[in-house]
Amino acid sequence: PDYVPRPPNPFICFRQDWLRRLERGEIAYSGPRDQRTMSFRISHDWREMPEQEKGKFRREALQRKKAHAAKYPGYKFAPRQKE
């Protein structure tokens, strides 16, 4: 492939889970649905989450990183230069 996405970190795993739970109605959120406002709320929830609960997302990120390594052996992050 021409572009290989980076494997997600624990916060990204949490963010994806948070948005899925919001769609299912498991999270009470009545604020604006723009990216900036929601990112602020999600990052706040992450910072307030106990370390023990963050472990779930750290384990998920590690699993996804291993799967990424198996799918893209030899992958090395190399940011693209802006033109």
TrEMBL record:
Signal peptide region: none
Keyword Isomerase attached: no
InterPro entries reported for this sequence: HMG_box_dom, HMG_box_dom_sf, SRY-related_HMG-box_TF-like
GO biological process: cell differentiation
One of the Pfam families matching this protein, by short name: HMG_box
Top-rank taxon, per record: Eukaryota
Keywords carried by this UniProt record: DNA-binding, Nucleus, Transcription
Keyword Nucleus among record annotations: yes
Binding region for DNA: 4-76
GO MF assignments: DNA-binding transcription activator activity, RNA polymerase II-specific; RNA polymerase II cis-regulatory region sequence-specific DNA binding
GO cellular component: nucleus
Name of this chain's protein: HMG box domain-containing protein
Organism (species): Dacryopinax primogenitus (strain DJM 731)
Species lineage: Eukaryota, Fungi, Dikarya, Basidiomycota, Agaricomycotina
